Amino acid sequence: MNKKVFGLLMVTLALLAFASPVFAQGAEKVVPPETVKWIVLTSGFAMAIASAVCALAQGKAIAAACEGLARNPGAAPAIRFALLLGLVLIESLGLYTLVIIFIKVVP
Questions:
Q1: What's this model's pTM, rounded to 2 decimal places?
Q2: CA-to-CA distance for 3 and 21, rounded, in angstroms?
Q3: Domain of residue 53, CATH code
Q4: Per-residue pLDDT reduced to its tens digit, 42-63
Q5: Which domain holds residue 65?
């Protein structure tokens, strides 16, 4: 086995061995009911803001792509690829927000 690969494997194993206490179960925290209400309320606002920003960004990206296609139809494949990649990255903002909300709200 190559020395570099072996060294990388050993470092990875050492990191995994030292990181195992991180996943140990700790004491359960008691959250007051007032805090739960605020968590749910702010989660709703966070999702609304993330969705609004995603919609605005996607609209701007599509408008720019349409303008680029109108100016230079020969660059359609490159513009289409950049548009789809940008839309995927923009949409990930909303999905990450939704995942974080589920982590925080759902026990």
A1: 0.62
A2: 29
A3: 1.20.20.10
A4: 888 988 999 999 999 999 999 9
A5: 33-107
